[in-house]
Amino acid sequence: MLEGFLNNLRDEFRFLRGNLLTLIVSWMFLYFTFSMVGPFEAPYIEGLGAPPIVIGFIGSIGSAMLSLARIPGAYIADKYGRKQIIVTMTFSIAFSYLLFVFAPDWRFVLFGMVIANLSLIYQPALQAIHADSIPAEKRGMGFAASNVIPNIPTIFAPALAGFLVETNGLVPGMRIVYTIVFFCFIAAALFRLFFLKETIEQPKRIKLSELKGAFSASLDAILDAWKSMSKSLKFLTIAFLVSAFEEPMFRWFTALYVTDVIKVGGLDWGLVNAASIAVAIVFGFPLGKVVDKIARKKAVLLAYCIFIPFSIIFIISTSFIHVLLVFIFFSIGGCLIMPAYQALQADMIPKEKRGRIMGTIGTLNVLATVPASILAGFLYSLNPMYPFAFTIFAGITVCLIVILLVKEPKIREA
Question: What is the CATH number of the domain that holds 134?
């Protein structure tokens, strides 16, 4: 009986090999650092002298730089291949975090964020090589594995960051955290250098002289990519452009709302994030399998049936227990929506166009966060509740678009 169970388990996860396994291992280093930084990033910038409106501005500048980088990034992914740009820019991001470590004020953080986001020129290549590495019939489980496994080491990361902040103070504690980020990025870059394999046949070597016209060529490629999308993929993209407005609201102002308004301490806030990760690990694979069994569209809508009511509960929260409950259910919703959206997108896009179209969608999503970050800072300055109230209306809009205008393909792309 045990042997049969183990054989079934091996068959279920046989797709975890090669590039997919390499990406997952490298993400284990990176997710660990993101989980340490995320709960305290905005408070750290505030501690370096930035008011909420400036924090929103910093987020907006970061998104703008990422948008600029992604435009030629999509072009590079399909013409020059995936590996060389991914490895080079992972090293670049690592060194950008030294500016976070030694920042005397928020301006240095802004400069570091500009470098880090420009280095994310490799994102379209990363998305393409990721999608290339997962069999069509295993996309729900494959994207779930990519979301769940890298999070396993991160369970204690937020609590560790909370402990460092509580014992050393916010700013000194976060300097230690960002030092850990630097070393983890170096480790991830080295792992990708040695083990990642190119998926494009006979890729050209990147030459700076050839990249001069890449930006204008990339703009044309983005327009062509939009034209080549199916009607349902265009509506799905529009839905998640609306959803993209939610991300900076939560990224930049959740921690400030929790610590400044609800008055949750640093260590408790770290524990909330740790619990959220633990829930994602427990439910990630079962809900990823649900995405493969039911329609992807239904999984997206089910996720929003969780997000919307618990966003309301978050706004009226008054204690650590309330915040803990909200983030547990946010995590369950995330286990549904991420693999469902990624799988639905991959189902609709042919492999040979995946770099350009995924790059275009990602670029548009990032562009949407540019005004969203500024809007979030403005709304938070008016009333800390307003950014989160806005996300509720955005979520309802996404649901209506998906219900009325998005249709799943009858035949999934390979």
Answer: 1.20.1250.20
